[in-house]
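Researcher: Good morning. I'm working through a list of sequences from a screen, and I'd like to move beyond sequence-only analysis. For each chain I'm collecting a predicted structure so we can compare shapes side by side. This is the next one on the list. No need for commentary yet; just the structure.
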Amino acid sequence: MPADIAHDPLPLATKVADQLKVRPAQVLATIALLDDGATVPFIARYRKEVTGGLDEVAIAAIADGMASLRELEKRRIAILQSLEERGLLTPSLAGAIAKARQLAELEDLYLPHRPKRRTRAQQARERGLAPLAASLLEGGRFPDPSGFITGEVLHADAALAGARDIIAETVSEDAPTRGEMRQLFSRQARLVSTVARGRKDDEAAAKFRDWFAWSEELARCPSHRLLAMLRGRESGVLSLSALPPEELALNILRQRWLRPDRHQGRVREQIDLALVDGWQRLLAPALENEVLHGAKERADAEAIAVFAENLRGLLLAAPFGRRPVLAVDPGLRTGGKTVVLDDQGGLLASTTIFPHESRRQDEAARTIRGLVASHKPAAVAVGNGTAGRETADFLESLQLGIPVVLVSESGASIYSASVSARSEFPDLDLTVRGAISIGRRLQDPLAELVKLDPKSIGVGQYQHDVDQRLLREGLERVVASCVNGVGVELSTASEELLGQVSGLGPALAKSIVAYRREHGGFRDRRELLQVPRLGAKAFEQCAGFLRLREGREPLDASAVHPERYALVRRMAGELQVEVGELMRRPELHRGIELKRWCDAEVGEPTLRDILAELAKPGRDPRPLFSVFRFAEVHHPEDLVPGMILPGIVTNVTRFGAFVDVGVKQDGLIHISEMSDRFIADPNEVVSVRQQLQVRVLTVDLIRKRIALSLKGLGGG
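Model: Good morning. Structure tokens for this chain:
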């Protein structure tokens, strides 16, 4: 048996390198770091010389590719062991298994030898019909089936039927045959969707009406449409099939298994019957399931990628910053829960206003003006749910002298009932906690949104239909990337935010907060090593992403890693200044010649990063905040084709982008309306939370659809 090559990274690294178009040495170096416990953000930021400058996308792809190949190798070894233990491993079979490059290829080779329930073919073999099947396959003179009549085989037709069962299974389990048929499916499978019996007029089935009688090539079916049809099948509304033309499939089987010189007359007739049966009963269902499963996996991957890109846009939305805000969670019957937050998001005041009851509007106005006068907030955050636009209009009418900003409240109610919210505000009502969350989302979207399950934020499609493990991993990777890309303030960050920092996690985050509370904060980064269970490895991974702006070490306010502090001090020493002065005076950096400071561990990429941090310590990569205002439209009925309106992108899909124009119903910019040039991916043009101008194309009040366009307005 071959050695366990799953433990030899070189062959696998070479395969991954070929797939990703990078050097094997880069893959090996990256895998060594990952296997040693390094995180993707840490490697991308602080080990550029080791990986040859690979970014987070490439590092994550290497991790995924290597994991996939290791799983393949594990399966290969398991198959070899199973065959060897049962005495079925021949040299030719071992060689074929060793050469297999895909899981499907491996499974095809194993299929004839896999332990399985008693099939019709197995029963026929037990009745002694294998020689009859072999004789038919060999061809030539038609064998006499009467010689196979026994107590269990009552007549000649039964003998022939059993032989055909053996031939059908033999054909369906033949690896080269399955490989060729798989290619046929990939090229020619046609996805056909029909409405299930009795569901055509079902009200719950109406949303799947477009696919009641639908047909297209499976290979051309976009991911969102496939997932929609699969959801319809799961709901019992649609029936789906994905098969190539049967005649093409049978022609392939006949060409492979029928020999004109050996198979004639009754022999040909029997084998042909077996081929048809093998196709219809065994090959077609198995490969149809396989091809649909493969298409679903690809659709899942695409949907998860879209969701992840949208989530990134939402998490990296412009923060209002560390300034006090007044926040309102609007409501009609129960009023608008109103809070004032300090510059750290701490609660200063709480009340309820009723701006939509005419007899209580004056009271609401006095309350708001009083809160503004007392606490001097820099802005008002208003949740964009029920009565959000009306509440914002009311607050605007008060002319408070500060901006009124509508804030997405997706998932705010989930946060309000969470353990985290209850722990921080055990005595507050759910709706008050919701108002606090809305205010904090304005101050720092990233810090607040990390407290939520990303699926509840509302920037994906079909998130409940895709592989949940892959979705969770993909979204967790995005959250970690965003948190570490921005950096986290060690003195004030929540447990949830700290838990996303490279090398930490929930347990260490909890320990950090407990230590911070007990000791009154941190004086420098190295004090992290005093936190229980936070060892040298975790410190290495997290330190560069944690900021300490009020500490005794100036470099702690930057993304310079502590392992490079000595290097920066030597630079400052040569310039005869303190490190703090080097950070305050960017003009001094012109006197630093990078090549002089390169050594075996530190190259120019890291040195350039260090100088960039010294110039702008702890710089926030997110865009600057700008106040957005909707046009004077409130309902879909207010829209007129040709109208040009400001809007905010709320969701991006493969077929277009949804935009909030302030009428309580998002409009769709179809991908064909994004630019005068061809656009393959809407993310080329727009991103979540982007502010833009759109033109109204059509308004369908009955179907509740608003069509928008970017053409001629700067789109692409």
